[in-house]
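Sharing a chain and its predicted structure for anyone who wants a worked example. Both blocks are below, sequence first, tokens second.
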Amino acid sequence: MSWRDLGAGEVRPEHVGQRLKLAGWVARRRDHGGLVFIDLRDSTGVSQLVVNPERAPEAAAAAHDIRNEFVLQAEGEIAGRAPENVNPGLPTGEVELQVERLEVISRSPPLPFQLDEEGVDETLRLRYRWLDLRRERLQRNLRLRAQAVSIIRREIEAAGFVDIETPIMAKPTPEGARDFLVPTRLQQGRFFALPQSPQIYKQLLVIAGFERYYQIARCFRDEDVRADRVQELTQLDVEMAFPDREFIFELIERTFAAVWRECIEAELPVPFPHMPYAEAMLRYGSDKPDLRFGLEIEDATELTRGSQFKVFAEAPAVRFLRVPQEFSRADLATLEEFAREWGAKGLAYLVYSEDDEVRSPIAKFLSEAELAEFRSEPGSTVLFGADTPELVARVLGAVRSRLGKELGLVEEGAWRPVWITDFPMFDPDEDTGGWKANHHPFTAPTPESVAALSSDPGSAVAQAYDFVVNGTELGSGSIRIHQPEVQQQVFDLLDISQEEQRARFGFLLDALGMGAPPHGGIAPGIDRTVMLLAAEPNLRDTVAFPKNQAGIDPMTGAPSEVPQEQLVELGIRVMPQKDKP
């Protein structure tokens, strides 16, 4: 049996006079006093059906009862539309199907929301995700995702990389987020972990002689969900032996330039510029700077060492932003509250009015030299951060991003990729007073930093790099440690005992001691890539079946309780939850 001769979106003027069958969903029904017009939708597009009771009385009777999202099969002759009825917005807008036979294949009750309805609550959309996915926008997003992945596979395989799958149930390892644990009936009291990434496996594959490995990998991280972060993510995972960082950069640039060009007809300017981490934090207050606008942070730490304004004089770092806007007191109060949310104690300012007068409670404490340095154009505001370098960068970076959007400074339609390089090897661990890995514990220090692992770990620089586009981190990578003694030294600095090293990473240390080549790679995120391509503010709308912000699937009800006998079989007892304070 043939359900249809063409897709609904494939009918064209050259089909006029042909008798065809079409099948699809009712996108819209319009009753014009006898004549019934139906927009029939399938994956190829939309065609207009015309049901005339004089031509097809049985079809007309059936048409009067249909609603949106009924599934129909229609058969009849393709006719050209009158010139005044042509719809230039549709590829099928010059023709219509004059229905002779109409069959209702599947019915639908009244919908919980209309597919063209705006502002539908996300929980309701996710509860009826199969309906939500019929929307044109989500259809576009998922098809765009498939196209992007196809291009990525083509480019990566052309460079000689082999697609190899790695286990989904693995050993828990420290990679920055909490693991999702999987109990096992056969080994009660023991747990697998869902992989946060295939990090160790891909290293082992390269050590095993697969010099160029890649995978479109599923990763799982038990962390809070945000607009640009989900618990189940997909990444392009790339690893190679005898790595050349510039080769990795060129490979990713070429691959993603092809994705942008073929998916959205836009050009990513290549080669991407490089920016050291320290410079990014100083100029933009972020390791993922949006380069589509200026508004750079300036440093005044040395200038203010002898300042009469004690907040500046005593702060480890003083930095400022020159904002091309004269802010009111209300504006400044709002910005100060925002800065406090990011950890600031306050937000000092100098406002220069259009008549070139300065308005500020701190101006009287500043010297002529300081005022001269901070002098800005009439109708502008200078905003200050004074605290530790890390806090000042975080606060002014957040303020910069907010103002870039609010003041319309962002160059719309522009693409500004950048490589962020030379990350610190370690960050201070405020909880333990020791160190934690800035990237992950398998990242190699630069050759110049190896000695610093013993003498000054805080100064060690990692061979790590991030791929950033328009303020969004798309990928993170590094050259890995391939010497077992260096890997053990890093574990020691991270306060992982010798016993724990053997228990958790003994197999990796053994592999590194058996002819491990230098190796490294990168893992760009597929979800975030599609989020940028589709100009979606929420990453969940690039995924077919996402969880909501609470990590719950409103459609299936997952995660759900399981029968007590299954818990007993697994050797698990659920503890009563403690009341939250």
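Comments welcome. The two ends are 64 Å apart (CA to CA).
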